[in-house]
Amino acid sequence: MSLIQEFRQFAIKGNVIDLAVGIIIGAAFGKIVSSFVGDIVMPPIGVLVGGVSFVDLAVVLKEAVGDQPAVLLNYGKFLQTLLDFFIVAFSVMMAVKGINSMKRKPEPAPEKAAAPVPPTPQEQLLMEIRDLLKQKG
User: Fold this and answer.
1) Is the CA virtual torsion 45, 50, 55, 59 positive or negative?
2) CB 64 within 8 Å of CB 72
3) CA atoms within 13 A on the CB side of 26
4) Which of 25, 45, 72, 112 has fewest C-beta within 10 Å?
5) Is the pTM above the cut of 0.85?
6) What is d(CA 74, CA 69) in angstroms, rounded to the nearest whole number?
7) pLDDT in tens, the chain (137 residues)
8) Four-CA torsion 80, 81, 86, 87, nearest 10 degrees
9) Does domain 3-104 correspond to CATH entry 1.10.10.10?
10) CA–CA separation, 87 vs 30, rounded Å?
11) Contact, 54 vs 37, CB < 8 A?
């Protein structure tokens, strides 16, 4: 089998298509979450902490000199991205949990009949006595 035929079989199986769809939807979902965090969640938090926008939080490592811009450590953008990640991760967890709860649960296997319990020595002796009495009577 040639390499091209192997690739065609792999691509046609649906794995590549499923992966592509997942990546496209994931990217779109990421944009939605980023907008939600940046435009809806962070402004009220910024107001609560004194009107500061998290994106603007930075430490100046080197002041701007002439045409060279300042060198900044943008920890506010990092905090924003971190919050985006946690919201995405929580959303994905809830989606997976919801999908798993909708899956049909397998029916429990019918219980196997338990092996009969062997008679106790007393029961064995009583059965022998009963059989002897039947033979005499």
Assistant:
1) negative
2) no
3) 9
4) 112
5) no
6) 14
7) 688 888 777 777 767 777 888 889 888 888 888 888 778 887 887 788 777 777 788 999 999 999 999 999 999 889 888 887 888 788 778 878 887 888 777 777 777 777 788 889 999 988 988 988 888 87
8) 70
9) no
10) 10
11) no
How far out from the chain centre does Cα 6 lie? 32
Place of tokens 């900044």: 72
The candidate with the shortest Cα–Cα distance to 45, out of 95, 82, 92, 88, is 82
In the chain the first and final C-alpha atoms are separated, in Å, by 84
Instruction: Kindly state the tokens that stand for 43.
Output: 């402004």
Amino acid at 103: K
Per-domain residue ranges of the chain: 3-104
